[in-house]
Structures are given as C-alpha cells and as structure tokens.
Amino acid sequence: MRAIWNGKIIAESNETIKIENNHYFPENSVNKEFLTNSDTHTVCPWKGEASYFNIKTGEKTNINAAWYYPDPKPPAKDIKNYIAFWKGVEISE
Questions:
Q1: Which pLDDT belongs to residue 43?
Q2: Which of 21, 25, 26, 89 is 20 to 30 A from 33, comparing alpha carbons?
Q3: CA angle centred on 87, ends 78 and 36, rounded to 5°
Q4: Residue 37, class by beta-carbon neighbours within 10 Å (0-12 exposed, 13-18 middle, 19+ buried)?
Q5: Which pLDDT does position 83 carry in this prediction?
Q6: Sheet hosting strand 2-5, strand order edge to edge
Q7: Apex 49 CA angle, 28 and 61, nearest 5
Q8: Domains of the chain (ranges plus CATH)?
Q9: What DSSP assignment string belongs to 10-59?
C-alpha cells in the first residue's frame, strides 16, 4: 500500500493494518521528512487518544492529515504508533 499526497509517496508498506476502512502504516514505512507535529488530539471511544501530524511537501501543507495512537486502549494495541492518513491523501496498492 502507498499513501501519496501532492505527488509524493508519504508512506509505503505491505504490512498495513486495516481498521474502519483506514490503512495504518508501520511507523518505519513513513517518510517522516514530510511530517510535522500538530497540537491536535482527538479521542476514539475504543482506540483512545489520537495525535496528529501535518503533511508538508514543497510549499503545500495538509493540516492534520495523518494520525496515530501513541498509547491506544487494549482493543487497538496492534496499531500503536502506526500512522493513518486522510484529507486527500490517496491510498493505493
């Protein structure tokens, strides 16, 4: 699977975990050069608190377009620190 935004491959892995139609990429498969920290956090009732990244390529920034669970609740323990994408990030095989 690949996560592509603004013509750049943000992540690529054959070992994503699919939950609720989102592909979560292993942390080591993500090109972190394109990520910047965000102060945004949200809460999922069964996964826990999510933290966000902005995606920056060239002059364009996609605010809060990637999220992860640094300390997920037990039912979501398998996606700890895996990163998922949305907001126009194309996920393809």
A1: 98
A2: 21
A3: 70
A4: exposed
A5: 98
A6: 8-12, 2-5, 90-92
A7: 60
A8: 2-92 (2.170.150.40)
A9: EEE-S--EEETTEEEBPGGGB-GGGEEEEEEEEEETTTEEEEEEEEEETT
Q: What is the pLDDT of residues 64-74, one digit of tens each?
A: 999 999 999 99
Residue 60's pLDDT is what? Answer: 97
Q: Beta-carbon neighbour count of residue 82 at 10 Å? A: 25
Contact present, 7 and 17 (Cβ < 8 Å): no
Question: Residue 23: what residue type?
Answer: H
Residue 81 identity (one-letter amino acid) = N
Amino acid at 31: N
Contact 67, 38 (CB under 8 A): no
Give the pair of three-digit tokens for residue 5.
């935004």
| pLDDT tens figures, 34-63 | 999 999 999 999 999 999 999 999 999 999
Distance CA 62, CA 85 (A): 11
